[in-house]
Amino acid sequence: MTGLPPGGEKEGFVRRHVTGALKWLVFSNLYLAIFGHAAMTASMMVLFRVPVNFVLLVIAFSGSMLIYSLNRYQDWQEDRINLPERSNFSTRYGRIITGASVPAFVVSLVFASCLNIAVLAVVLFPFILGILYSHLRLKRIFLLKNLIISAGVSATLLVVVAVYPVAPRTWLPLYAILLCGILVNTIIFDIKDIPGDRFAGIRTLPVTLGERRTREICILLLAVMIFFSIPLLQGDRIFWALVPFFSYIGGYILFVPAGTSPWWFYGMVVDGEYLFLLVFALLLR
Prior knowledge:
Farnesyl Diphosphate Synthase
């Protein structure tokens, strides 16, 4: 007798395997690469009302996989304190995932060079930043880590602009929004990393100013994003997809768990924000 109701064992078996599969997606960076950066690239193309280019999605996916796999492999010491389960995963599978990401990224560089030299340059930019960030340990310099990640990831929009003739009055405000949004994302992620960053001597905003002041700064950045959206909202109605997107960001800023948090909150809810934007952009297209 197991003490479980009829069907309870089967439900528990399914739940464990679904949870295990989702954890694998998050810890391997596949979730971030697909529903984060590839979704971000797709949402930019939808917002600009240009054809969705599959090659650009492959570039975003492969670049994200390589850069974040290298970073997770390098950050094993901090993760051992902040996210021991992810640290164990990286120790076990990190080399395999990183090794598989290298040829995929090389292929994406070939694709980028076939488009034009500007695309290749923009694709290499975040990769170079990622290498500097991972190997020179630039994350130890106050706020530099957040700025490097924001600059690298926001290059997603520049890749789209390098392929399609989008007017500066449209892409410049959206680039500012994207830059601030990614900055908010990285700062919020630092909240869960407080114990490990403090142990490693890394001065992040939450470590230096505390959680409450960090949230206030993120709210201020969200206000800047809203300001830059005003000319876009007065133009094409598709940019009204930014309104629920801003609400989503405001929600996780206010309700991000302090201290110990569920494994899925940051890896799926916070990193899934651009999937949310993509859905609303498609609805308004």
